[in-house]
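Per reviewer request, we include the raw input and output of the structure prediction for the construct analysed in the revised manuscript.
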Amino acid sequence: MKATQHPTTAAQVTPADLLRMAVLYLRRHGWHQGTYYAPTTDTPTPAACAVGAIGMACAGHPVKHFSDLRTDDRPTYLDAIAALTDYLDQHYPIHLVDDDGYWLDEHTSPYSWNDDPACTAEHVIAALEGAAKEWDRLHTQEGGNR
């Protein structure tokens, strides 16, 4: 690099950014229930569940566990899933109950919620968008990070 050139600074990707990119992924490639990704070998961009779409947005390839991500990407990925979970707790609460009537989870699992037969692609997209807006509301001030 020449002394007169200035290195570019990349903006940090926030959990809200990942959630919005997951929405774009689902709109372009489709939504799936039952597994992270639709079982296919003919496309590198299969239909995905909510969390699978977040993984694709983060890594650009299918992610089945956060250990599949680069170390630097893991916190934002996990924060995006946490933001979705918090949003689901407020707007789409589903709590699994055992045979004795006790909650198995205190939070709505995005995995179980995505796979619920009553869930639709429209629900998933709305929840991802809502979670992104909520993350921005809680973490940004005047267009910048707090």
